[in-house]
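ok here's the first one, seq then struct tokens
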Amino acid sequence: MSMIEFHNVEKYYGDFHALHNINLTIEAGETVVLIGPSGSGKSTLIRTVNGLELINSGQLIVDGFDLAHRKTDMNKIRKNVGMVFQHFNLYQNKTVLENIMLAPRIVLKRDEAENKKIAMELLDKVGLADKAANYPAQLSGGQSQRIAIARSLAMRPKCILFDEPTSALDPEMIDDVLNVMKDIARDSSMTMLVVTHEMGFAREVGDRVIFMADGRILEDDSKESFFDGQPTNERARQFLSKIIKH
């Protein structure tokens, strides 16, 4: 069953053509990794999936809903499609536990006792149960990102979008965040769409690798074919050779 379908999707910012004729299907439960040079359209593509960016033409189906249809309720989409950003976006005036409990309380009307139980289970899952009473300012960047992941999981979404979740972190904090993401990919039927520069993560966890450049999908392949074989696209081969050298 398809979770996300792009059909001839185009996206412009004024005269700038950000996404060119995107055709892409992501099945439920897949972990798909988006890679490519900066400015290639990866973040724009991922942000269209929960309506943070609107497409100009084509069709984008997410969990059975047509995002281009004017009657589509985006709040229904966002209940089932979580997102983890580069810069955490935690509420600074709320504790870690309150950050995680807030959306399920407001959006899902979840029972308070159950909400707290789920939040504490998720804090344990990301290795930060001892930080429940802390405020975001008391956390490291890596800890904040793990809290942001727990917050997204608290809605029990069908799909989570990760927009370069480790790019703002110090190198020693990256592994803790990636390990949480690996656990999610292995332990659940969650659909994951991940924009990342972490090739080790892409090779280990991704079911598929999408390579983008200049707003186009130039390669869509299994991780084995992409990393251990040879990409068919010359631009992708050049990108991969530079990544491997470094």
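and now the second one, same deal
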Amino acid sequence: MTSIDSLTDDGRRFASDSHLATLSTIGPDGAIHVVAVGYTVDEGVVRIITSDGTQKVRNVERDPRATVAQVSGPQWLSIAGDAVIERDPAAVAHAVALYAKRYRQPRVNPKRVVIRIAPDRVMGSAGLLA
């Protein structure tokens, strides 16, 4: 399996450009639950900021399998692994800073948490992976 470390310079650039992505998790009935998200990749970790109690948070707490997928024209990237929910204020602040650098400063949200994915499978279009 390909790891996040196998991203080429083009792959790292693609994963840092201001593209939205989808997050797929396993819903309570076993169906795939897919939502649009912004995400960041930093030091080999994927982070998604969201509100505590959302369906995606409940899904990760029940079943940690998660995949982030980004597509832009012919280029695509899929990053999968086990996720955890981080509620520590320092972890949330770090994820917010990364998000603000990639996208924009998010609104204030006292219920914010981080979905943190440890990638173990990475797939992508030609040129994005070594």
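notes on #2: The chain has a mean pLDDT of 96. Strands lie at 21-26, 32-37, 40-42, 45-51, 65-72, 75-86, 112-124.
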